[in-house]
Design brief:
Number of strands: 7
Strand order of the largest sheet: 3-2-1-4-5-7-6
Number of domains: 1
Distance between the termini: 35 Å
Strand content: 15-25%
Largest sheet: 7 strands, mixed
Order of helices and strands: HHHEEHEEHEHHEE
CATH class: Alpha Beta
Mean pLDDT: 95
Structural class: alpha/beta
Low-confidence stretches: none
Bound molecules: S-adenosylmethionine
CATH architecture: 3-Layer(aba) Sandwich
Shape: globular
Length: 195
């Protein structure tokens, strides 16, 4: 579910210019000490990864990757469900405001687990379905399926926790961005030890 981002890349990217206060708070939320090399899965136009010092960004949208590359991040065309990286080769994987768009969220986290080394971190930035913004997004999705919100099938906190646990991760911390309403969360996870 990425074609809208490829066709309307500039439109998506301009959101950050229209909402500078939220952008800065999200950057602050995701300024997290974590090991390298660092990959942002679903990097989009690179607004987050490039400012947060990520080395590589992956996305299926070529138009988005062109913008991400111009912001100084190395880019790889691909999908979250089949990551073209070797086992245990990365220190941090960030999935920012994108998990709900993936065809197979469970497979995406399994792939993140495979490519992270044992002391690596998975960071998920997410809006929960039950949050004020999540409820607003669902309304927009139902009113206009052709909009960016048309594919917005958000997860609840409980659903995310279940997927995290079932794919071999443990939640280390969870923090909200400090927006007017509690809408954007950073969930930091580590790999459960292999037995
Ligand atoms: C809402 S944007 C977020 C982009 C960026 N992370 C940010 O915070 O600005 C969602 C991104 O997910 C990408 N995407 C959708 N499905 C994907 C998939 N299966 N694997 C990887 N990326 C995907 C889209 O192309 C789009 O760039």
């Amino acid at each position: 579910m990425w074609d809208k981002f490829d066709k309307r890349t500039l439109d998506y990217d301009s959101w950050y210019d229209r909402h500078p206060d939220i952008y800065l708070k999200e950057l602050d939320l995701l300024t997290i000490d974590s090991p390298g090399p660092k990959l942002e899965v679903a990097v989009g136009t690179g607004r987050m990864g490039s400012r947060l010092g990520y080395d590589v960004g992956l996305d299926p949208s070529l138009n988005s990757l062109h913008m991400a590359q111009s912001r100084g991040i190395d880019c790889v065309l691909g999908v979250a469900e089949t990551l073209p990286f070797a086992e245990s080769s990365l220190g941090t994987v960030l999935i920012c405001m994108s998990l709900w768009l993936f065809e197979d969220r469970r497979k995406a986290l399994e792939e993140a687990r495979r490519i992270l080394h044992q002391d690596g971190k998975l960071i998920i930035a997410i809006t929960y379905a039950e949050s004020p913004l999540g409820i607003e997004y669902a309304g927009k999705r139902d009113a206009d399926p052709g909009s960016f919100y048309g594919d917005c099938w958000l997860l609840t906190r409980e659903e995310l926790r279940t997927i995290i646990e079932e794919t071999g991760f443990t939640v280390v911390s969870e923090k909200e961005a400090g927006l007017d309403t509690p809408d954007v969360w950073a969930v930091v996870c580590r790999k459960k030890p292999t037995s």
